Amino acid sequence: MDFNPNDVTEQGPQLAEGWHTLEILEATEKISSTGNPMIVLEYGMRDAGGQPGAVRVREHLVATRAALWKVQQVMEHCGLAEQFNRGRTVESDFRGRHVRVELGTESVEGYDRPLLRVVNYDDIPCPQPAAAAPPAARVRDQVAHPGAPTEADPIPF
Prior knowledge:
Elements: E1 18-31, E2 37-46, E3 52-62, H1 68-77, H2 81-86, E4 98-106, E5 115-121, H3 135-142
Antiparallel strand pairs: 1-2, 1-4, 2-3, 4-5
């Protein structure tokens, strides 16, 4: 695809600097440029239809002694303190979690405008969405069960 980047007349949707509650839309395990394990988190917001928005902010969690404070801060904020204390996490632990972050900007060589980055996490862990109930549980909860339970349905409602 060829195009002229100077033809841009409008900027797409933007997040402003300041505090935002964002969802972890994507988490990817990788190896850093220095050979250390890391997880790249992509924060963003969903639109009214529930689709991930175009604006995303990346955060790199690198498993080095000097950067573990950041890993701990993010994991505790996401409700993953138990996984942090075990010393093991995987990318799926993060997806769908919410974080309350302060965004700032950073000038990066090669970019015309500053990029958004996370500069702080709220001191209070962010409430997490409830896990979806399995489909069978949702259907069972919607059906009235008159009378006593049967062997096939031993749980009284």
